[in-house]
Amino acid sequence: MKPVTLSTAFITALSTLTATTVIATPRQEPITPIAPVRITEPAKVELGKQLFFDPRLSMSGVISCNTCHNLAFGGTDNLKTSVGHKWQAGPVNSPTVFNASYGLAQFWDGRAADLQEQAQGPIQANVEMAMPHNLAIEVIQSIPGYRKQFEAIYGDKNVSLNNLTDAIAEFEETLITPNSRFDQWLLGDNDAISVAERKGYELFKSSGCIACHNGPAVGGTMYQKMGLFGAYKSSSPSQGRFDVTGIEADRYQFKVPTLRNVELTYPYFHDGEAETLGEAVDLMGRLQLGRTFKETEINQIVAFLSTLTGERPDIDLPHLPASGINTHRPEPFK
Ligand code: HEC
Ligand code: HEC
């Protein structure tokens, strides 16, 4: 990802917004609206989209990025933990790819700096697509329709891992969800959210959720320990940032997840243990704030969280190019 491009796009989009569509005064809040995306390199975005949907990047020939990050839904698989090559269970829950570009780093433990670095992980990961990088490159290289696009965009018909992941990342940067009801309210439309939803937001702020879940993505800006007011018991082997840094203080520190579109991305937490949003809110209150919410309070916060569902991009299924005569064939049971 190129943070510079993104922030320029963000500022331009925001100023267009302010100039043309916003009549009311935007509110000053710790959550800020998501700006509509501005596509500067459409051919690269299209190539990235094809690769995102192409199961030939997996050894089995049946798993694509979209398998676990379903763009027709919330950008996740809605499973407790993901299922990958040969039906293997992964160790953690699949986070949404919508608005992922806002994250300070990628993965629950932040082990990839940006979307481009992240995209290298799943192709090769044994429990995901199980496709060695050299073979993935060979497959894409053997498909004439891809070779042509790589040459036109990168000036090189030799496909590289760098260019392949660059295209995927470029596509992912378009996966943002602006214009949620909450954003409409932030931009000055008083009637965009109900009284109960507004109460939920006030509680979200006054009780302290906002300290960790803030910014345009309502998360993604920091790492925090899961279980500040009591240990969180999990069956998942993940130890969060500790797995990356080996520093004791980082044990069970996870990237604070985005709460955008959270009503679509169940089940919750890195281990997918919380099935409903109500359960997740209740646990957050007790474990992160030392506070037990009443049922009405939980309902209000859940109501507020549902106003964070934005407009998902309209995505036409891409037309994938035909395999070449020498394209390595899928091996579903290898
Ligand atoms: C088998 C299911 C599976 C497949 C296939 C898969 N992912 Fe993921 N993805 C996951 C899981 C699980 C995680 C979380 C892993 C972790 O944090 O350790 C994840 C994390 C991510 C993240 C990080 C999001 C965040 O907020 O931290 C991005 C971005 C992403 N995947 C994009 C992709 C792309 C692009 C592809 C295709 C090249 C892909 N994924 C293929 C399951 C999958
Ligand atoms: C001290 C920081 C902190 C505070 C305060 C906090 N959270 Fe969280 N929140 C996190 C972290 C870290 C996670 C990820 C934990 C994990 O997956 O194990 C998380 C996860 C969540 C999730 C699950 C999202 C998903 O996609 O899995 C929800 C929902 C949530 N928080 C809501 C809230 C609400 C509501 C409050 C206030 C009652 C709150 N949080 C307070 C840090 C915090």
TrEMBL record:
PTM (free text): Binds 2 heme groups per subunit.
Signal peptide limits? 1-24
User: What is the superkingdom listed in this entry's lineage?
Assistant: Bacteria
Cytochrome c domain spans which residues?
A: 43-151, 195-309
Keywords, ordered alphabetically: Electron transport, Heme, Iron, Metal-binding, Oxidoreductase, Periplasm, Peroxidase, Signal, Transport
Task: Using the UniProt record, give the first listed, main subcellular location.
Answer: periplasm
Enzyme Commission designation: 1.11.1.5
Q: What's the record's note on cofactor binding?
A: Binds 2 heme groups.
| Gene3D superfamilies reported in the protein's UniProt record | Cytochrome c-like domain
Q: Where in the cell is it found?
A: Periplasm
Q: Which cofactor does it need?
A: heme
Q: Which PANTHER family match?
A: CYTOCHROME C PEROXIDASE-RELATED (PTHR30600)
For the keyword Transcription regulation, the answer is no
Binding-site positions, heme c 2: C209, C212, H213, M284
| Protein name per its UniProtKB record | Cytochrome c551 peroxidase
EC top class named in words: oxidoreductase
- Which GO molecular function entries does the Swiss-Prot or TrEMBL record give? cytochrome-c peroxidase activity; electron transfer activity; heme binding; metal ion binding
